[in-house]
Amino acid sequence: MSRLLLPRGYRNAEKLTHQLQTLPEEVWVKRGERRALSLFRAMSHRVPAYRDFLAANNFDPSTVKSIKDFNKIPPIDKDNYLRKYPKDKLCWDGDFPHGQWVISTTSGSTGQPYYFPRETSQDWQYAMTAEAYLRTNFQIQDKSTLYIVAFPMGAWIGGLFTYEALKIIADHGGYDLSIITPGIHKQEVINAVKQLGSNYDQIIIGAYAPFLKDILDDGKREGIDWDQYKLGFVFSAEAFTEKFRDYVLNTTGTKDRLSATLNHYGTVDLGTMSHETPETVMIRRELVEKGTLGGVFPEDVRQPTFTQYNPELFYFEEVDNNLLCTAYSGIPLVRYDLKDYGGVLTRNALKDRLRSVGMDLDKQIEKHKIQDTVWNLPYLYIYERNDFSVSYYAFLIYPDTIRRALQYDELTAVTTGKFTMLVDYGENGRQLLHIHVEMKHGVEQTEQLASAIKKLMHEQLIKESSEYREVFKTIGDDAMPITYLWPYEDAEYFKVGTKQKWVIKESKSKK
Hints:
This protein has helices spanning 13-22, 25-46, 48-56, 67-70, 78-82, 87-90, 120-138, 157-173, 186-196, 209-221, 242-252, 278-290, 347-356, 361-367, 399-406, 409-412, 447-464, 466-475; strands at 102-105, 115-118, 145-149, 177-180, 202-206, 231-235, 261-267, 271-275, 305-309, 315-319, 322-327, 333-345, 379-382, 390-392, 395-397, 415-425, 431-439, 482-486. It is of the alpha/beta class and 511 residues long.
């Protein structure tokens, strides 16, 4: 039974990397358009749920002749499509029980968990993408490498998907690449570095950003001198700031500011869809440093995850500041609404915006000597979702603002950077902003420290949010966040072995 087929040329990473660096962006976009149209035609014939969805929306698939027609296809999402139809109707030819699937689940942070089937060719697709960036950023073809998979290894996609891709890379490419999979067991990650690290030219740690910070801090407390290792870091699932990247680089003594760290943009629905490149890291860092984010992206302060993507594998559209994606998968998806706030930029459009803020991209590439890492692919920028925020006096507060407050030097020494925020109501019916902050191991929770943290969070909110400034002018100190300090790894808000919940929509009882 034919399902996902990799495009031609995707089983040789060296050749693929060369093409990414030499073929014009327009070639990749045209390939993406052709593949998106092909997928739509196949789905409209072979996926029962999709046939029904199109009929219910009075859409005739035979009218789609070009990419302009493609843009008129009604979008699908979890509610109007995935949760509306049974699994077998969503799969190719209505056949779910007889496939050879690996099944992953969402975290359920925005609703009930949903289970997505994945097949082997998707592992190959991710493997070829990952092999290309591992060669480009970390030169695995020249260095013996220990990759520590510190993503969760349960039913979630991060750990197992990464392991399977790395195993394909190691076996297929013949690299000196070893893999260990401690998952989110921090002590096992630290032990692996201590016991195995000196045997390899480099160590790459794949982890969620807040979890990596714990690893680095705990490792340092246990006597690890991170400077003695050549380290690389691969992130996923969490947005982070350039201040956080600097913290990682400075803590580990890593000199390469552009290639040593790489963040993914991915979902359980479709897997890894895009990732940072040295070029996108360079651009974001310079825009943050010069305070010119707003000249390139929609917002002045919030730092979007900024990546490049291959439209032949994941065809993205920007509709009303929202991202749609079309891609083959266990459950194939056409014009799938990811519910992610962001946008798409071509290379020419990006260059024009950069020139408007005084940056010549080609000159900057030459200045930073990253010519050999540049891929001719379009760009994605992604902000934190609106459902990962709290509504306070009718405006939204995003975790990114609080993260920046906790990244002041005086706070990185005492907090882990993890927190949970929620909005509750006082006895008088007035809204209250509660922020629960995790302390580093051994740090005492004092009123003075809570007051200092509250002050810095308030100042950051004043700096970034005009709505907060107005509320503060109106009601004064009652608008300020109420700060709670918690011991390291306290189970109430910072339970070990679970993904950090930055936002809670409903209040929970406090000690």
